[in-house]
Structure formats: C-alpha cells, structure tokens
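Quick one: Pyridoxamine phosphate oxidase from Rhizodiscina lignyota, structure tokens please.
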Amino acid sequence: MVKFYPSIPDDIQEWMLKQSVWFTASAPLAGKHINVSPKGHPESTLAVLNQNQIAYLDATGSGCETISHIYENGRVTIMFCSFGAAPRILRLFCRGRVVEKADKDFNAWVERMIDSGMKMDKAMKGIRAVIVLDVFKVQTSCGFGVPVFPKSKTWDDRPTMPAWSTKMAAKNGLEKYRENNNWRSLDGCPGLKSARRDRGQWLVVEHARARTSRVVMGQWDALIFGFLIALLMFAVGWKLGLLELKL
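--- reply ---
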C-alpha cells in the first residue's frame, strides 16, 4: 500500500542506510533521455542531514547526467528497495544542488556528512562533488515485485572504483578524465563547471547556448502554440478596434 510522508521518518532513515543498492533518477527539461544511476553502500556514501535533507558523495564516472540535470532543473528522485524478506520500496522526491570539489564549501559539506554518521570510503580520492538533496515528499510502497536475495549470499564491495581512483589520482589523471567525460550530458546540458573551465569554456555563454539549443530543438510545440495564441489575440483586438471605429 502506498503511503506518503512530508519528511523521512526515523525508522525509514535507519532502514535506508542498511540497504546495499540504491538509485538516482533525473531528466532534462527537453531531450530524449531519462537517466537512472545505481549506487552502492549508502552507509559510506550518503548522509541523512535532517528529516528533509540528504547528501551523497558523487564519484567520478564516465558521464555526468545527474549533475547536468540538477544544474538545469534540480529535479531528482532517489529510490531504495529491499531485497530481503521484508519488502519495501522507498522514493525520495527532491530538489538538488551540486557542490563541486573545487567549490570553497565542499570540505564543509563532507565534514557535515561525517558528523551525521557517514563512514569514510576508500574511494574518496575519486569524488568529484557532493550532491545535496532537499526532500519535499517521501513515498513508500509494497515492493512485492522485487526479488529476494538469498540469505546464503552476501553483498561485497567492488574494489574496482577505489583502485581506479587511486591509480588515476597518482598520475594526476582525474582532472583530465573529467574534462573529457564530465563536461556535458547526453542531451547537451552543461556538466561539471570545473571540467568546462578546463576546456576553456565561458560558463555563462555555454549555459545560454545550451538553453537556446534545448528550446529550439525540444520545445517547438510550445513556441508554435504561443505564437498562435498571440496571433489570435492580435486578430481579436484588431477586429474589436474596427468595430469601435464603425460605431
């Protein structure tokens, strides 16, 4: 049965941090793609700052969809689901903001997350941003369709990300990787500011270009509708003006 809450109840906070897998979803205002990203081990990557605010560490990856979408419109949904005997699906509907590693308040947010109980992760060298999410609605549902993970098996940390991040950091390769892979989304939304600066972009100009491009490519229906309404209002006004002249 679906239930809604205005904030995250204490028992759900405890439950979500014990899960092994969680997901983020986001999308541009105009474009073909809706992004869904899997995440792992929230106890070492995510912190509940209060009942209406969470934050998570965003690792360097091959794309930057969530970051780009947050910069454009701020919409994010977080989902947890139980693979254990007791079923549950949890969705957190949020407004997000990005705190990049180069931002002056990045370390303060990380410290706040640690103070809230988050354990430090070995992949910290590869972190590119803190994603801060203000939760405006919480939804739980049955989760009966989610399979049960056998008790005989356990979830293990995948060592690839910490090893890759450490290797790239050792040869100062993370910044170049982000410059080449994290500067824009699949739909052309501007990505990491640091990556865009490293590419020599003027952030204001690039933001205006991307906004104009998305309007032209993805919102023709709204432009045509607006033009037709304006034309109709002009015709009615002109007609009324003629009638007034005849009177």
